[in-house]
Design brief:
10 helices, alpha/beta, globular, oxidoreductase, Quinone Oxidoreductase, Chain A, domain 1, ADH-like_C, Rossmann fold
Length: 326
């Protein structure tokens, strides 16, 4: 039997339960993975709350790293003992071991450890497609606005943006988070709780605005994000920590300077095998070389899942958070 965190109804963090569950044998195109570390992502709370509806009961979590313990038929290219990491469906990463389809797996380079992998696979691939794919007009020397700059994705995205020659303005809530964001590449900081974000952006860009806004907050920041764009800039709706983005008013996009809005999903940027390989190879290369450093600032065990979700939703975390499997 394996240990796994499951939920039977949508709701607050206290709906999570740690249970003994059978693992079963891998079928066609599947392997059994023993987890070493599991990623904790804000998207997990969307599944738990029912914002992303899934059949119930269900497991929790979409990201983990571990070792293949058993292979099923049709798993060419994978073998017992391979170190792997993954992000994506099906739910159930909050577990000590599980059966996974090989289509979700990435082979883990030898110079990246399991905890780092669990802290970076979803976050790093998200940063990769945000920066490399969502604004085809962006070029070195451009300025971007990055909300939640001290979060797990934010710290990776800031470092990657600097490698691309971009100027990074980050929003944070506290001085502690500001110091962390600056240490990972942010050139300028805006304290979104006490400053007018679009006004400060205009001050920092000589009235022009930024080429791209990466908005992980949603409802509370959408209007300010639009107003922070330069003419024909791109607002990338990356997350909805404060609630869903409002209905899009096409005329408002024109009034703000013929700007663009996109609400991308990671799965659509991993669907093509060539693009999947491109993004993952770039991420693994940057991390293995030390050009991008992964900041793991919270470590939990699976039986701390309720507290972990509470910490995440209360804004108490910085950098990446993981569950460590003994």
């Amino acid at each position: 039997m394996a240990k796994a965190v499951r939920f039977y109804e949508a709701g607050g963090a206290d709906v999570l339960r740690l249970e003994d569950v059978p693992v079963g044998k891998p079928g066609e195109g599947e392997v059994r993975v023993r987890h070493v570390a599991v990623g904790l992502n804000f998207a997990d709370t969307y599944f738990r709350q029912g914002y992303y509806p899934v059949p119930l009961p269900n497991g929790m979590g979409v990201e983990a790293s571990g070792v293949i313990e058993e292979i099923g038929p049709g798993t060419n290219g994978f073998r017992v003992g391979d170190r792997v990491t993954y992000t994506g469906s099906p739910l159930g990463a909050y577990s000590t071991e599980r059966v996974m389809p090989i289509g979700s797996l990435f082979k883990l380079p030898v110079d990246i450890d399991h905890q780092t992998a669990a802290a970076m696979t979803m976050r790093g691939l998200s940063a990769a497609y945000w920066l490399l794919k969502t604004n085809p007009w962006m070029k070195p020397g451009d300025t971007i606005l990055l909300h939640a700059a001290a979060g797990g994705v934010g710290l990776i995205a800031s470092q990657w943006a600097k490698l691309l020659g971009l100027r990074v303005i980050g929003t944070v809530s506290t001085e502690q988070k500001a110091d962390l964001a600056k240490a990972h590449g942010c050139d300028e900081i805006i304290y979104y709780r006490r400053e007018d974000v679009p006004a400060r952006v205009k001050e920092l860009t000589d009235g022009k605005g930024v080429a791209t806004v990466y908005d992980t907050v949603g409802k509370d920041t959408y209007e300010g994000s639009l107003k922070s764009l330069k003419r024909r800039g791109v607002l990338v709706g990356c997350g909805t920590a404060s609630g869903s983005f409002p209905p899009i008013d096409a005329l408002q996009l024109a009034i703000q300077g013929s700007v663009y809005f996109t609400r991308p999903a990671l799965a659509d940027y991993l669907a093509d095998p060539a693009e999947r390989a491109e993004l993952s190879s770039a991420l693994f290369d940057h991390v293995a070389s030390g050009r991008i450093k992964i900041e793991i600032n919270q470590r939990y065990e699976l039986d701390d899942a309720i507290q972990a979700h509470r910490d995440l939703e209360a804004g108490k975390t910085t950098g990446s958070s993981i569950f460590v499997i003994p």
